[in-house]
Amino acid sequence: MSSPVAARSRVEVALGERSYGIELGLGTLPELGAAVKQVVGPTRAMLITTPPVGRRWAGRALASLRSAGLRARRFDIPDGERSKSLAQAGRLYDALLAAGADRGTVIVALGGGVVGDLAGFVAATLLRGLPIVQVPTSLLAMVDSSVGGKTGVNVARGKNLVGAFHQPRLVWIDAATLATLPLRQRRAGLAEVVKHAAICDAQLFETLEREGEGLLGGELERLLPILERNCTIKAGVVSQDEREAGLRMLLNFGHTLGHAIESLARYRGVLHGEAVAMGMAFAARRSEALGMAKAGTAARLVALLTRLGLPSELPWHPRRAYLAALSVDKKKRDARIRFVALRGIGQAETVSLLPSEILVPEVR
Ligand SMILES: NC(=O)c1ccc[n+]([C@@H]2O[C@H](COP(=O)([O-])OP(=O)(O)OC[C@H]3O[C@@H](n4cnc5c(N)ncnc54)[C@H](O)[C@@H]3O)[C@@H](O)[C@H]2O)c1
Ligand SMILES: [Zn+2]
Questions:
Q1: Model-level pTM greater than 0.85?
Q2: Which residues line ligand 1 (CB under 6 A)?
Q3: Across residues 46-71, what is the average pLDDT?
Q4: DSSP string of 130-162, one letter each residue
């Protein structure tokens, strides 16, 4: 058995002067402070978290920041997607400024994608930009949202419609924090892992097929190589296409329908990863129907999703409801969508389709 120390690794996100590292390990939260101190030279750290995470992990993070000589304070936001709002960002601006936030302040985001996206947005905009360190604690945030610099909030018209690109200075992944992440959330995070495998890493896909649910119940240490592989994939895509001009679009595999499913459910009852799982299964079937994917591709993807306890059938909604959800903006009803299709497991490409073409023939 390798020790946690031996299992530590680092992935570089190469973006010129905005480059940063993703540090992975198990039980490494006590070393966070020293690492933060090394990448940014501020005197003050403002840690943003949410009670389910903060209750278990903020104490350790704050102690570590303080022992590295930083003045550190904790700010809690209510748990859940609803906190990704301009109102919540406004409350944070006021609280952080009241606590003395200045140009020598670093923001530390400790939590899942909600905390990371909101804290990232606040860091991008407060005082025209403060450095941020991402400390993701959900599987989804570790393999996806904490890397790449996309930050944002939701508005009435839809999710993530207001935001900014703001790369973190460091991503600190302590897989030990996953011990308290509910099983359903772990499964949902695996959906993004399956996504990375399906679009560009057939070998990772085979690993997932081999390990199956064991990944969720077993030793957290077994997850480390999977986390590292996923961060490498995401970092590679982001380095080549930071602003989503082309390659980065492939990361939207399963998300066209996934977002529609979430919006039709009014963001209740279905987790993002679950919606993406259904969206990926749909996209794989559609890729076969379009003659793009090898026969059997969809069946293999669906089999893996099922083994991981993820859904693969679209929830029923009237076809016109799906059409409306796919064309977020009414004015864009006739606009083509860059739909991510599979060629096979490990190979994806985009194809421009009308919403009505995407929805043929599965959805009546
Ligand atoms: N910026 C990006 O590139 C990007 C990419 C993908 C998703 N996202 C965004 O990420 C969000 C979803 O992220 P998420 O799935 O992490 O949701 P989340 O942040 O709501 O976390 C899910 C739940 O798990 C809890 N939790 C997190 N870590 C925990 C831990 N270690 N122990 C106990 N509980 C824990 C949270 O408090 C929450 O209740 C969405 O808003 C989505 O838009 C952003
Ligand atoms: Zn996603």
A1: yes
A2: 50, 52-53, 56, 79-81, 84, 111-115, 117, 137-138, 140-141, 144-145, 148, 150, 159-160, 177-178, 180-181, 185, 272
A3: 98
A4: --EEEEE-SHHIIIIITSS-EEEEEETTEEEEE
